[in-house]
Amino acid sequence: MRAWQVAELGEPAKVMRLVEVADPDPGPGQLVVKVLASPANFPDALMCRGLYQVKPDLPFTPGVELCGEVVATGGEVAGFRVGDRVLGGAVLPFGGFGELALMDVATTFPAPASLNDAQAASLYIGYQTGWFGLHRRSAIREGETLLVHAAAGGVGSAAIQLGKAAGARVIGVVGGPEKAAVARQLGADVVVDRHEADFVEVVKAETRGRGADVVYDPVGGETYARSTKCVAFEGRILVVGFAGGDIQSAALNHALVKNYSIVGLHWGLYNSYDPPAVRECHRVLTALADRCLIAPLVSKRLPLAEVAAGVQHLADGATVGRVVYDAGVPG
């Protein structure tokens, strides 16, 4: 089969190579799927650079999540059969950026019929992260104000839709007019272009000085530091990631005197610590998708030949929504 491989570490566009590789062979509890679609995720770029906490042996094929059609099953497989349309996580080194991929039954789920392949491929990581973050970790309530950073990106766009579905008032922070338009399209009640306005002042004005009840922060660094200036009394700052590159130290005395919580989220751990909760989350997300309350925003569909360029655009912060390898796109 053809697949993108990383044989050395560096920028995705320089180290990803489209090559012929052997087809994956499923082990116990595993599935081989024909890849229908696989979105670019920030961990894909970080793994290419050797900067992610998961460091697969070289060479490997990136593409940490996907939608696919089951073509072969290993032993000890129950609940799936050849021909099923599924979504979930890939088992590296056989990631989603190839014609075939390998999946574990434990992290594989039926793909909702209400979503096309590119949307279904994008439902797993970003939306599960958002659901666990908003509902399990920060316990968002109807009527609360949710501040979402990087609101036009893959993770932020999911948080906007999930926040609105939960009945929250959503303030989205973006960089540039194109991304501002996307955040509005996704349903954000207020959109702040950080190049044009100070989100701290906007949040204070929009909440009459109270501040945001929940801050959804996949950026970190100075974004986190400034968010502490506009979080509400008994608010929750949800630490989702550090896409900005800097890991800010938390001033715990400030959290004490202002009575807010700093809440970490490593969604992937739930696959080990609470698998039933992950399955329940997928059930809820499928129901929301079927009711048209959520739908991953796919901004660009790429043929296999253009995947490396797409991952590089994501790494450079030049994308909105999801950039997805779609096997149905010719090229």
Automatic annotation (TrEMBL):
Domain of life: Bacteria
Transmembrane segments: none
One Gene Ontology term of the molecular function aspect: zinc ion binding
CDD domains according to UniProt: QOR1
PANTHER family: QUINONE OXIDOREDUCTASE-LIKE PROTEIN 2 (PTHR43677:SF4), SHORT-CHAIN DEHYDROGENASE/REDUCTASE (PTHR43677)
Record-given protein name: Alcohol dehydrogenase
Organism of this sequence: Prauserella muralis
